[in-house]
Structure formats: structure tokens, C-alpha cells
Design brief:
Blueprint: E1 4-8, E2 15-19, E3 24-26, E4 33-37, E5 42-45, E6 60-75, E7 78-89, H1 103-106, E8 109-111, E9 119-121, H2 127-134, H3 139-144, E10 149-169, E11 172-175, E12 180-184, H4 188-193, E13 195-196, E14 205-208, E15 226-229, E16 234-239, E17 242-246, E18 248-250, E19 259-271, H5 278-284, H6 293-297, E20 301-305, H7 311-323, H8 346-350, H9 353-360, H10 364-367, E21 375-391, E22 394-397, E23 403-405, H11 406-412
Parallel strand pairs: 1-8, 5-10, 6-9, 18-21
Antiparallel strand pairs: 1-2, 3-4, 4-14, 5-8, 6-7, 6-10, 9-13, 10-11, 11-12, 15-16, 16-17, 19-20, 19-21, 21-22, 22-23
The protein binds zinc ion (ZN) (2 copies).
One zinc ion binds at residues 9, 11-12, 14, 27, 29-30, 32.
């Protein structure tokens, strides 16, 4: 479930409401767009309901780590997947609740800024440790497949920190969201030793959305990770606090009113299980296709959706598009209306390669045990928009005939 975040417009200061995945802040009041740049972990705080006489400078904030994303793991002869959406305690404690439960979804949270004047407990539990704990196969799965784990990937993963506000009154520690006592005893001094004050590096900063190439306004949707310049037909992603151009193309359709969905086209070679071209991929995954000389000439590319989908749909689409790449023509760099926003980063797409191999393999028993020894060498990457017909409930890809329900695309925006 998505979180609702209360945020002030970086340009005019007006209060606006954001979703968790939003990066392009479009202010309805001053109409200025700003792109949010995280420096490390995004940090939020739950609103407190502490009594007015409690001095906010004396309050404490306990970190909870929030994970949201999909996990894919290959064991035995199966590729399994699961959605993870959880908020877990980031400090060792016997009195604080283990998780925030549904609280972050039920209230409007805000980014931590210098306005929060209390003390923040230092995180003592590593994010990786928590992630491994919450991503353990379920009991049901682990009984069915006691076999070794061949690969594990987290895709579309977002990690953030949500602070639970606390205060001490008459020697009692209170949960300041519900004003309920958590523990007796303990002193503010001892808690302060485990805490830090606000650090300016915790707050994201904002980039003006101007094309670095021609100066025109960059456009995108609220959750776009890649912004477009329709004037000079360039695409930009944020890296280390600035916009950098990315290699992109659009497969041109001669039909009107097409919808374009973005894919990361990742050209690779693999070692361990050697694949030097598309024909190798077809043979190794045992596709029911006659391998032809033309396939030997084709560079192997993985076609990974550059937008979020439920794990099953995501991996099936990646596999089907990768198998169908022989039908896809080259494109050109022209912007057009109806291009779906990029909501999944290239670095996330790269994580999916072994899972796509596993999904594609018709000989899972043979291929899956080889995955741990396999590694991919990236040769090139390119963002490619493919044309889809609008067929009522579905989008149908023009060249390959693959279809995607509109409802899963809509649902993916909230993942
Ligand atoms: Zn504004
Ligand atoms: Zn431009």
C-alpha cells in the first residue's frame, strides 16, 4: 500500500500531498515542477499527538525500516515470487513494537526536516539483515522445496525509514502517536546517548526541471524516474544530483493512437553459462523454436519492463518480450503523445536477468542449478518504447502480439 506524504512545495511553500513513489513534484498553486533527489534513505516521521505541554525538543524518534518491492527466488525446479510491504523496527529494543503495522498507511507522514527538533535513535539493525528476515520463504514454500536456493533478486525495491515519535513523562516512555505508555523507568539521558540530532543531509533536495541540453521544460508524470524533453527529443535520468542523458528510442508505428510502453533493453553476454548471441539464449532455455542462422547474428538483449507490475506479470512480460525480440524493429528518437512513464530504474531491471532466464527455461531442472555460477557482462543499454494497440481492456503489442491488461498496468502504479 502506498503512503501519503505531506510536503511543502520547494518553490512557493504551499502544502501539497505526495505519494510514496512520487519524484516529480507538480505544485498546483505555483505550477512549478521540481524533481526530488534523495540523498540516501528517505526519512519520514509519523504525526505525533503528544500533549501540548510536552517540549518537542525533548522528544525521541525511533527508526523503522520500510521495504516495498518484489522478491524472486529460484529453488529446486521453481521460480517463486512474493510482494514485500513491511515496516520493521530498526533498533534492538524490548519495549518498542516490532513493526508499525498499518499506522504509516493510515496517517499522513512527513519528511524529516530541521523542524523536527528532538533526538533520533541511531539505527542498530542493518537493513540487509531485516530484508533477509522478511524475505525468507514461507513455511509452506520451504516444506515443498527443501532444495537449494539458486538465486534471489529484489526488484523494484524501495527502502525508507519512518520514525515513531516518543516522549518521556514522569519516568514513563510514551508512544506519542497514540499516547499510550510503553515502559516505566529509563532516563532521557540514557536515550540521548543512543541518539543523534537532525542532519541536513537527511532532507532530499530538488532540481529545477529544465533540459540541460536546450533549456526547455522537462516533462514527466508524478512518479516518472526518467524525464523527457519534447523540444530536443532527449531523455534524462537523475544521477548524483544532476540530470544525465540516456540512450533511448521509440519503435515507430504507422497506426494512430498507439500507447507506448518503456522497456530497458539490456545487451549482455554471459559467462558461467555462456551466451554470446540470441541463438544461445534460445538453445540454453530450450525454446520451442527452430534456431536459425539469423538468430546467431543477433546480439542477446533482455527486454525488461521499465515500469512496475505485480511480480508474476512482470517476469512473464520480461520473458515473453525477450523471446519475441526477433520480431522487434529498431526505433528512432522522436517523442510522441502517449508514452508511459518509466517507474523502474535500470539498476533494478539488471537485477531481473537470472529470474528471466529461470522463467524462460523449459528445462528448469537443468538450468536452475547453473544460475549461481552465471554472470552477465553488460554491453549496452537502451530505453525503448514499444507501440501497443488500445484494445479496450488490454494493450496489445503491435509486432509481437503480446497483450497486457490495462488493470495490471494501473495497479502497478501503486506498487
Ligand atoms: Zn508551489
Ligand atoms: Zn531539450
Amino acid at each position: 500500500m502506498d503512503l501519503t506524504i505531506q510536503q511543502n512545495c520547494p518553490s512557493c511553500g504551499a502544502e501539497i500531498e505526495l505519494n510514496e513513489a512520487d519524484r516529480l513534484i507538480q505544485c498546483p498553486y505555483c505550477e512549478v515542477n521540481n524533481f526530488m533527489v534523495n540523498r540516501g534513505l528517505l526519512r519520514f516521521v509519523l504525526p505525533d499527538k503528544a500533549p501540548v505541554h510536552i517540549d518537542r525538543r525533548e522528544m525521541f524518534y525511533a527508526p523503522y525500516l520500510r521495504f516495498k518491492g518484489n522478491i524472486y527466488y529460484c529453488t529446486g525446479t521453481h521460480l517463486k515470487h512474493r510482494v514485500i510491504d513491511t515496516t520493521q523496527r530498526g533498533v534492538n529494543s524490548s519495549v518498542l513494537p516490532l513493526s508499525l503495522g498499518l499506522r504509516p498507511q493510515a496517517m499522513r507522514i512527513s519528511l524529516v526536516t530541521d523542524m523536527v527538533s528532538g533526538s533520533f535513535f541511531r539505527q542498530t539493525v542493518k537493513a540487509r539483515t531485516l530484508l533477509e528476515k522478511v524475505s525468507q520463504p514461507t513455511v509452506h514454500d520451504s516444506e515443498k522445496i527443501k532444495a537449494s536456493l539458486y538465486s534471489r533478486a529484489y526488484i523494484g525495491e524501495s527502502l525508507s525509514c519512518i520514525y515513531l515519535p516518543l516522549y518521556i513523562e514522569d519516568g514513563v516512555l510514551y508512544d506519542a502517536v497514540i499516547n499510550k505508555p510503553l515502559a516505566h523507568g529509563g532516563s532521557a539521558e540514557s536515550l540521548q546517548k543512543k541518539s543523534d540530532r537532525y542532519h541536513p543531509g537527511w532532507t532530499p533536495h530538488f532540481l529545477a526541471t529544465l533540459c540541460p541540453h536546450c533549456g526547455d521544460t522537462l516533462t514527466g508524470e508524478h512518479d516518472s524516474l526518467v524525464l523527457s524533453c519534447c523540444n530536443c527529443h532527449s531523455s534524462w535520468e537523475e544521477k548524483q544530483g544532476g540530470f544525465h542523458p540516456i540512450s533511448w528510442q521509440r519503435v515507430v508505428s504507422h497506426h494512430d493512437h498507439m500507447y507506448y510502453l518503456p522497456f530497458w533493453k539490456l545487451e549482455v553476454r554471459s559467462t558461467g553459462v555462456e551466451m554470446n548471441n540470441f541463438a544461445d539464449f534460445l538453445r540454453i532455455t530450450n525454446q520451442p523454436l527452430v534456431v536459425q542462422p539469423v538468430h546467431e547474428q543477433m546480439v542477446l538483449s533482455f527486454w525488461i519492463p521499465a515500469f512496475k507490475l505485480k511480480p508474476k506479470t512482470f517476469i512473464q512480460l520480461a520473458k515473453n518480450m525477450t523471446v519475441s525480440q526477433r520480431k522487434l524493429p529498431g526505433g528512432e528518437q522522436t517523442m510522441i503523445k502517449g508514452m508511459h512513464p518509466v517507474t523502474l530504474q535500470r539498476t533494478e531491471a539488471v537485477q531481473a536477468l537470472k529470474s528471466v532466464m529461470a522463467e524462460a527455461a523449459l528445462n528448469k531442472q537443468q538450468l536452475l542449478p547453473l544460475l549461481p555460477g552465471m554472470s552477465f557482462r553488460p554491453l549496452a543499454s537502451d530505453l525503448t518504447y514499444l507501440p501497443f494497440f488500445d484494445r479496450g481492456h488490454d494493450f496489445v503489442q503491435e509486432q509481437s502480439g503480446l497483450s497486457l491488461a490495462k488493470s495490471v498496468l494501473r495497479f502497478g502504479r501503486s506498487l
